[in-house]
Amino acid sequence: MNSQQVMSGAPKQTGSAPAGSEPGQQAPQKPRRRVLTSLGFQIFIFFGGWWDVAYYILNILVFIYKGLQLPYPGRNFAMEFSFSWLWILIEAPRLFLASKGNKTERAGPIIFSCILALPLLGMYIYFVAFQTYVLRIDQLLNGIAIGFMGIQITFAILTVIRFILATRFT
Known about the structure:
Helix content is 72%, strand content 0%. It is mainly α. The chain has a domain of 114 residues. The longest helix has 33 residues.
């Protein structure tokens, strides 16, 4: 042993180098796999979740205002208010599936999240155009929500295409 090995505590290399390499060179590494997740998609899922919290709180407050200030006919208020609860029961799993599919690079959960977006889109359109009383705040809230969902679905489709093409041509 020489004095450098004793001082550094590094053991003396013994044995032969891997086949196909010269002594002193590292063994060839496996090629790295490309990361396919979409950062833009994940960003819009993240901020879409925060928007959903704000949307839900504001939507409930608007319904409380409407219930106290406007004369609702019959059961319309209960039905429209229950849509808000149904909305949260669909939106939270939709965002979870989209995020999970993006992070695990699987198309299935993302496709299912897009399917769950269809009834939500119907609810947004109902809240903008067909509910008993449509206020400007309703139009603004639901317009922003439709915009977020449109961007998320666009990113979802592009991400699914990317995942499918990557698995098909490898």
